[in-house]
Amino acid sequence: MKLVNVALAFSLIVACAAGVLWHMELRAPPPEDVCAHLLSLAREDADARFDPRRCLRRLQPPKKFGVRPYAQRMKCMKDAGSFAAAMQCRVRA
Questions:
Q1: Range of the domain at 63
Q2: 44 lies in some domain
Q3: What is the 3-state secondary structure (H, E, C) of the chain?
């Protein structure tokens, strides 16, 4: 009986850890933060063409499908060191 309880507790811990890691993978930075970062990068780059009004509309999360690729792209854009690098962010398959 003790072995069953230990196995059940271990399974529960592993499942919770997997759920937390999966949630962290799917969590994207808010579009407002990404747009603010892109705006600061665009100000540093003289050749950058950036419209802050369109940014929020274009970076809204998808309604149904593609949450993981969206989160990956938003994280890439938020972590980019230059405007050109941010514009090169694409979804990795």
A1: 2-87
A2: yes
A3: CHHHHHHHHHHHHHHHHHHHHHHHHHCCCCHHHHHHHHHHHHHHCCCCCCCHHHHHHHCCCCCCCCHHHHHHHHHHHHHCCCHHHHHCCCCCC
